[in-house]
From TrEMBL:
The protein's assembly and partners: Homodimer.
Lineage per the UniProt record: Bacteria, Pseudomonadati, Bacteroidota, Cytophagia, Cytophagales
Catalyzed reactions: N,N-dimethyl-1,4-phenylenediamine + anthranilate + 2 NAD(+) = 2-(4-dimethylaminophenyl)diazenylbenzoate + 2 NADH + 2 H(+); 2 a quinone + NADH + H(+) = 2 a 1,4-benzosemiquinone + NAD(+)
Name this protein carries in UniProt: FMN dependent NADH:quinone oxidoreductase
Enzyme class: oxidoreductase
Cofactor(s) needed by this chain: FMN
A Pfam family per the record: Flavodoxin_2
Family statement: Belongs to the azoreductase type 1 family.
Chain's role: Also exhibits azoreductase activity. Catalyzes the reductive cleavage of the azo bond in aromatic azo compounds to the corresponding amines.
Every Flavodoxin-like fold domain range: 2-199
Gene it is expressed from: azoR
Residues that bind FMN: S10, S16, F17, S18
InterPro entries: Flavodoxin_fold (IPR003680), Flavoprotein-like_sf (IPR029039), FMN-dep_NADH:Q_OxRdtase_AzoR1 (IPR050104), NADH:quinone_OxRdtase_FMN_depd (IPR023048)
Cofactor detail note: Binds 1 FMN per subunit.
Catalytic activity, EC: 1.6.5.-, 1.7.1.17
């Protein structure tokens, strides 16, 4: 049975276009893999924890030498990493905020991309340990980034490709609901995005 990990980062709940797109992706994947289990990690409840000094120190302390406080400070990171390792498929719902990902997604990545656990550096360079996964990214934006003058200002897709690739997740597929801030486009943007999912061949 496939396990899907859905990362939610828009605080707009059911109104969110990235969530609508992410849900359509989950629907499509679940139809392909009946009985697929969906685990949700919602980053929007309160302020998602940033890496802090004590935690960083704990990351680099062997677990059998960690104090109780250090053990507690790595617990969330351990849990988030386990969720990623447990999943076969990741579905990431991401709004575009100031040309990039929401800070909650960056904070989540800072907890998940951990030396010695999800990647390492050796004489051959970086090596990601999170292999054999597929990831689907549902991006929403006010402007259009897939083509036209803003294309070069898109720091969502290139960044996610880089950081996921770094930990070993290289099979990434991007879907966009875009132009939500442009009246001439916003009326049909969601329908167009949903159609792109419908027509997509899952492999
Ligand atoms: C804080 C903030 C920053 C935003 N920055 C951008 C931006 O740089 N480029 C853009 O095209 N849209 C931007 N938007 C618009 C959102 O990407 C757009 O409304 C999107 O639909 C939000 O995602 P959601 O519907 O999943 O919540 C921004 C919205 C907010 C709230």
């Amino acid at each position: 049975m496939k396990k899907i990990l859905n990362i939610i980062s828009s605080p707009r709940g059911e109104m969110s276009f990235s969530n609508k797109l992410g849900n359509a992706l989950i629907g499509k994947i679940s139809a392909e893999y009946p009985g697929a289990e969906v685990m949700v990690r919602d980053l929007t409840h309160g302020i998602f924890p940033h890496v802090h000094a004590g935690q960083l120190e704990a990351f680099f302390t062997p677990s059998d030498q960690q104090t109780d406080l250090q053990k507690a400070s790595v617990r969330l990171s351990d849990e988030l990493i386990q969720e990623v390792f447990d999943a076969d498929i990741l579905v990431l719902n991401v709004p575009t905020y100031n040309f990039s990902i929401p800070s909650s997604v960056k904070a989540w990545l800072d907890q998940v991309v951990r030396a010695g656990i999800t990647f390492k550096f050796d004489e051959n360079g970086p090596k990601g340990f999170v292999t054999g996964k597929k990831a689907y990214v549902a991006i929403s934006s006010g402007a259009v980034f897939s083509e036209g003058p803003f294309k070069e200002n898109d720091f969502v897709e290139p960044y996610l490709k880089t950081v996921f690739g770094f930990i070993g997740i290289t099979d990434l597929n991007f879907f966009r609901v875009e132009g939500m801030g442009i009246p001439a486009l916003s009326e049909t943007a969601l329908e167009k995005a949903l159609q792109s999912i419908e027509q997509y061949q899952l492999i």
